[in-house]
Amino acid sequence: MHTLAIIGNPNSGKTTLFNRLTGSNQHVGNWPGVTVDRKTGHINYQGKRTDVVDLPGIYSLSPYTQEEIIAREFVLSDELDGILNIVDATNLERNLYLTMQLIGLGLPMVIALNFIDDVESQDIHIDCNKLRERLGVPVYPISARRGLGMDALLEAVTGEMQPPTHQPAYLHGVGAAIRRGAEILEQTNIRACSRPFYAAKLLEDDPQIVSHVQLSLEQRQEMDDLADALSAHEIGHDHEMMFADAVYDYIEGVVRDSVRKPAHPKLTPTERIDKVVINKWLAVPIFIAIMALMFWTTFGPVGEWLKGIFETLIQGKLSPWLESALLAAGASDWVIGLVCDGIIGGVGGVVSFLPQIVLLFFFLSMLEDTGYLARIAFIMDTLLRRIGLSGKSFVPMLMGFGCTTPAVMAARTMENEKDRRMTIMLTPFMSCGAKLPVYSLIAAAIFGANAGLVIISLYVFGILMSIFAGFVLKKTVFRDVSSGFVLELPPYRLPTFKGTVRGMWDKARDFITKAGTVIFLMSIVIWVLQNFTPTFAVAASPETSILGVFGRFIAPIFAPLGFGEWQASVSLLTGLVAKEAVVSTMSVLYGVSASADLSAILSGVFSPVAAYAFLVFILLYMPCMSAFATIKRELGGWRWALGAAAFQTCLAWLTAFVVYHVGMLLF
Amino acid sequence: MKKTLAGLKPGQSGVVDGLTAAGAVKRHFLDMGITKGVRITVERIAPFGDPIAVRLRGYSLSLRRDEAAKIELEG
Q1: Which site among A144, A158, A446, A622 is 20 to 30 Å from B34 CA-CA?
Q2: Cα of A404 vs its chain's centroid, Å
Q3: In a shared domain, residues A87 and A191
Q4: A609 belongs to a structural domain
Q5: Cα–Cα distance measured from residue B75 to residue B72, given in angstroms and rounded to the nearest whole number
Q6: Set of chain A residues whose Cβ sits within 8 Å of the Cβ of B26
């Protein structure tokens, strides 16, 4: 048995190949300490088992992005026995850059030349024997999408893999310097085969490798002399550039020898599509149309219909069935209450969002797999950059209007850590679907005919606050981190049915797991708090329950905002379970009955200014626990998640305070 | 003042002579194949004026104008 890593550029079809090779034998976990997925699986081929690790898609083994560092640490560890390098044949030059670095590692290796069908349809011919000869590594042409060439590849990766037959002879003295550097490293404990890689990185002055490798003073001096001798070749060039130049020069030679292109290459399908899709005038209308379709389907008729089915199943069928089953089993009232109201109410309420979440992720994976996501970032970058975000923040922010939970998950598509964190922190300011019932109820009760205007103003207010909060975060927490926007616009590709379904299933499973653990526990906790007094007797009325007592205790916090009644405080607390719960809690606590409906009661309790301050607070304060749990996972820890929640809640308090007092002066 | 990639209009191309970027941005440029001697063509400008889309080594890349200004061209 041995362990194989699949490594390749983003958009090289890595995931498709991984799925092809491992089938359903997969496990998704996390790399220690980071939020990058670690996918592992195994191949069963002719009775032999080979473990496969899917490394993150990277362009190089540079130590800058999280993905690069993970991939590099893994390939330099002893866990690995061989490398399967997947190369996009339609983009050979740039893909081979990573290949050259991998060859420097000297580990057993094979190359899978993917999208060979696309290359052939462009009348380009790649001579795989020539490539193998020049690179010293076996090359297998495949189409992971169509399953072409898989047998030969499987045979190769499950058999005895060989290290590269030779190290490339880079020009400009770089190749010679690497060879000499590798000799200097002979007296260290670095694996013999990987010395060329380490030598190159030491000569390039790669900060991590320099601090990682223990060299004697003498050896370090020799390395420095070697580097200085290199610089003498070309003045004004630093080592990093020289190495990259030498590698790309070498690759150009390899490509010249092994690729035959037609004299007059026709425009690729991607170039033709881009002429329309990111055209100066058409780009924005097309973009808006695609977004509208996505949201209309998810949150409009189709999504609502599916959600309705789920709700009927859970509340109309499952809940009564469980209740009668528990009654028949002789369960006491409080057990029935806990199960049917607490657990089903909490978990069920969240699970009913599942169809919409799956739909959203269906669209999102389509956007990503087709290559359009990169174009959205390209179109929107300038606008979002002004508030310290990047073009890639757009989709998550937009999804935030639907539901914060999938929106936060969607931020995974951003490779810049600072942008991703900031997007996650700002997304909750987009009014999610669950806040709408709260807005409409209170606005209708207090503002009557102007209710519509009030609701729209809240949506706009949220957007303005995210812009403002973006500025604040840019100047404080995320200061000084310059994030570039060097982004590949990958070729358009048709997503595979299997890949899309698998992606949707993964998301759904993620979500169900969370509903079954975190939300399950929190639902129980809230139910207990609502139904027991501080001395753990059954509460006669909500007022005497732990939540009621606590509500009274915290009510003074909200007094300066104009809504210091304990009922309002408690409803804000239950809003943490799900925002729509604010409405149901208020109905219970204000003792809504047939003779007095909630609207009438509310208009007696809230002044218009206080009501608006209350709505603003609901708009801005920390998101519901489902979103919070997701934020915690995506930000990678309690410290960040609690920090974000504190930031949002403080901002909500301050804003509501300003709104209330300015409003009191004006009206 | 050296000519940079930021000064090109859609359809125009130039040959890279050097980079004035540093740190992660420079590394990223090099990894993406923006090395001395490579020909880069500006394909188009985004609808709101920034970033730009360029083509090199047979693929398309998007970068912001201020990043493009760090790529010096020959001539």
Answers
A1: A144
A2: 13
A3: no
A4: no
A5: 9
A6: 240-241
**Residue A435 maps to a domain:** no
Can you give the residue ranges of every domain in chain B? Answer: 5-73
Residue A579 contacts residue A431 (beta carbons within 8 Å): no
Closest by CA to A95, choosing from A230, A254, A240, A218, is: A254
**A278-290 residue pLDDT tens:** 988 999 999 999 9
Q: Is B11 on the interface with A (CB under 8 A)?
A: no
Could you write out the three-class secondary structure of A86-99?
A: EEEHHHHHHHHHHH
Q: Is the model's pLDDT at A152 over the cut of 60? A: yes
Residues A146 and A243 in one domain: no
Q: What is the CATH number of the domain that holds A203?
A: 1.10.287.1770
**A516-527: per-residue pLDDT in tens?**
776 677 778 877
Rounded to a whole number of angstroms, the distance from the CA of A143 to the nearest CA of chain B is: 19
What ipTM does this complex have? 0.96
pTM for the model:
0.83
pLDDT of residue A234: 59
Q: Residue B51: closest CA among chain A residues belongs to which residue?
A: A378
Do the chains contact at A379 and B47, CB–CB below 8 Å?
Answer: yes
Question: Do residues A47 and A146 share a domain?
Answer: yes
Chain A residue whose CA is closest to B30: A244
Number of helices followed by number of strands (H, E) in chain A: 33, 10
Looking up tokens 């504190």 gives A646
Nearest residue to A96 (alpha-carbon basis) of A136, A63, A51, A147: A136
Judge if A142 and A190 occupy the same domain. no
Architecture of domain B5-73: Roll (2.30)
Chain A segment 90-109 residues within 8 A of B by beta carbon are: 90-94, 97
pLDDT band for position A112 (50/70/90)? very high
Q: Rounded to 5 degrees, what are φ and ψ at A479?
A: -60, 150
> Has residue A665 been placed in a domain?
no
Cβ–Cβ under 8 Å, residues A348 and A312:
no
Instruction: Flag if B47 and A281 touch (Cβ within 8 Å).
Output: yes
Q: Are A154 and A181 found together in one domain?
A: no
Distance, in Å, from the CA atom of A65 to the CA atom of B25, rounded to the nearest integer, reads 11
Same domain, A19 and A103: yes
What residues of chain B lie within 8 A of the CB of A381, using their CB? Answer: 46, 48, 50-51, 62, 64
What is the residue range of A225's domain? 174-260
Number of folded domains in chain A?
A: 2
Same domain, A181 and A217: yes
Sequential DSSP letters for A241-260: HHHHHHHHHHHHHHHHHHEE
Tens digits of residue pLDDT in A316-360: 888 888 888 888 888 888 888 888 777 777 677 667 777 877 887
Confirm or reject contact between B72 and chain A (CB < 8 A). Answer: no
- Both A226 and A135 in one domain: the answer is no
Q: Is the pLDDT of residue B46 over 90?
A: yes
pLDDT mean over A385-410:
82
Residue A252 bridge partners (DSSP): none
DSSP secondary structure code for residue A430 in this structure: S
For the beta carbon of residue A83, count every other beta carbon within 10 angstroms: 25
Whether residue B15 contacts residue B37, with contact meaning beta carbons closer than 8 Å, is answered with yes
Question: How many Cα atoms within 13 Å fall on the side-chain side of residue A443?
Answer: 19
Question: Tokens 């519509």 correspond to what residue?
Answer: A452
Amino acid identity of residue A272, one-letter, is R
Q: Does A100 reside within a domain?
A: yes
Give residue A388's identity as a one-letter amino acid code.
Answer: G
- What is the rounded end-to-end Cα distance, in angstroms, of chain B? 11
